[in-house]
């Protein structure tokens, strides 16, 4: 599996991807999921991929080659056109491979996050689906996740909004990734983190994070430690508190009442041997 | 959907369930997922259910009725036998319904957590599958989740171990539930929380938690607030730090190197019009 997350903030874009890939638990290896397309001063685009690795590598190959001079990521006039070129690449791979995959009982499974900025336009972020269609991040919904997304979603939901500074957003993405790494063995290091500052039109902040990375280790240690500390500071429930209305004990229900928590009790208990 | 979690600790058992059920987004209603079987002084058993509601209600009905005098939750000699009786109830429903469900294109989907204590034995916790087989919680793996489990898993993985006091464990279950509620609309209030103290052999701590519950509201507010606070206290990544080895910037890779993060650049950039 995979976990990738990207955020579109007022200050720019944050992209983070893991690098674990597996075809069954006995076939685990490392494949990075991030591809950067850059023409300094003119455009920076980042592609994150999840799903069938053969499909996403084919998509990446098509996009990196950009053989069609008239319609490629290098010539796209804006990010919407660029996203549709990514979608077309997915459809091209679908046309080439989907039938054979179906014959083999394999779903055409790929999911992409694609974002960046082209000179003259704002930074934009898209989620491209296996059908080649896509949606764009908005201020109300300013991030996308692909792959094993659920473990790392709550912390993002609690923290991320467009006004979040880039450093905070990168930190949040790493905490989200840490939660995922901790709970799911199919997601693994190294991580690729790219933070794009709006209007920089070049990659200035990219890092590949492995076990030795001091900052990520600090986050892992500090976050877990402080989380337990905060948790310890919150009062435990008081079952014998003076306000029982807040904690009503279950009443004995002799009959099953569906739609209610059932407290079945055995009337004939006395007859047990 | 559903989210239920239960933990087996040295001090006892904690059970928490939500009450949202849905058959599509236009058919959402409330159905509680907790059933308590109690014979004070002799046994307390708690069943949490996820999956197809018709199946889990049928299982519950069979277990609550306990028609087979010789083999019911009321007569089981130990929790292992009780768990196998739950498994048998699942198989009984399967025998009755699975064919018709399959004809209708519906999977036989049910997942149960079942735990408690019978006089003379320790408290035990089981995860019962749709096939009627089951596994038991161990000190190494002392909790089970069913339903929408992923959102609330990281916080449990960070905090729960058998030595955790019951109050802390209940609090952790509620934080885990809060994270799930925040990220997934298919899980909803009210919640049923039951905390069982080893050897009490009766239900002493049960509460149904709705929007008005002051303790749960405190947890939701405090946890979110303190989480943001702790998050703010952790340093942002420093991209221009004195130790660039920790944050190496990506090197320009002119060629695609698969297995590496690809930084594709267009050599013919100068020829663009």
Automatic annotation (TrEMBL), chains A, B:
Segments for region (Disordered): 250-273
Gene3D superfamilies given in the database record: Glutamine Phosphoribosylpyrophosphate, subunit 1, domain 1
Origin superkingdom: Bacteria
Name of the protein: Peptidase
Comp. bias regions, Basic and acidic residues: 264-273
